[in-house]
Design goal:
Blueprint: H1 6-10, E1 14-15, E2 19-20, E3 24-30, H2 33-36, H3 57-62, E4 72-76, E5 83-89, H4 92-95, H5 101-117
Antiparallel strand pairs: 1-3, 2-3, 3-5, 4-5
Family: Belongs to the CKS family.
Protein name: Cyclin-dependent kinases regulatory subunit
GO molecular function, one term: cyclin-dependent protein serine/threonine kinase regulator activity
Amino acid sequence: MAHHTFEELAERIVYSDKYADSAFEYRHVILPKQMLKMLPKQYFQDNDTGLLRILSEAEWRGIGITQSLGWEHFEVHAPEPHILLFRREIDYQVKYPQGKPADLAALNRAKAEAAARGNGRA
């Protein structure tokens, strides 16, 4: 079995097409299964299920997930813990072409944390 670096695995993250209901648009993000083994323990729930907890924007951006502003990690697909579910307000980019101030602040925090880690990825 080939051993990949975290950066190589981040390049293999898969993003679903977007789908929507009347309030939110959604997408799921599929992490390479090997990547789960490389994530910090504090990113997982405390109950030994092996499931990720809900990640902050800085955390999910820090592991290599790249999306436009407004997305929030809101659920983990328990049968397949490497699948993360995201949502954002419907028409977010139309309503907030420059992004909401809180989302811009979260993005800037993620960039600062990435720079502090030395990987420059947010």
